[in-house]
Prior knowledge:
By secondary structure, the chain is mainly α. The protein is 79% helix and 3% strand. The model has no long low-confidence stretch (mean pLDDT 88).
Amino acid sequence: MTTTHHIMNAFDQELQFLGNRIATMGGHAERMVEQAVQALVTSDGGLAQKVIKDDLVLDEGQREIDEKAVIMIARRQPMAEDLREIIGAIRISSDLERVGDLGKNIAKRVVAVTETRQPIRLFRGLEALANLALTQLKEVLDAYAARSVDRIGFVRDRDDDIDAMYTSLFRELLTYMMEDPRNIAACTHLLFCAKNIERIGDHATNVAETVYHIVTGELMPPDRPKDDKSHKVVIKGTEEVQLRE
Length: 245
């Protein structure tokens, strides 16, 4: 067996290590968000504290991938697809670390929200938004594991659905605050939670674009507006909330 073969085999193992660490980080990030939303819905302060502590795992995962990637680039001097794999792993780990931060931010608001119990329909809206965002995240991580771009365009475009649901929830929370000023504090925290979930969809979209670049060597067309419509929600009078044209 030649020295070159040994080197290539070792490099393949290092690439596999990066892929495995991304998969582990992805699963952990998904669980953190799921548990953060569950803690919010059930007023479970203990579970919220667990989510906050679990964020350290993602921080360590990102550091490990960054350090390994730097060593691989310096030692192997990869080109083309191999270099895209390494840079892609760095980018995806960064997005997953941010997803963990967003889950932690939700968990931090559990106590503030549950001091004044809110209608269950508001929590159901958050759950639906979280399910949509997490489904998107899972699908792009599956695409990364399979190095497949078959559904990447569909997954990225579906971020519009997340934005639309977030805007609807934003409007509903504003309406609820207008009905009773005592709801303002809790609903403000829920608004931040909803925004954190919407941002998870944006990070899933970032991962989709990175996977596309890894597999094809090309960038996805920048024709999808990353924008919810909450900035167009305005108050008319004292009872009506609508979207500006």
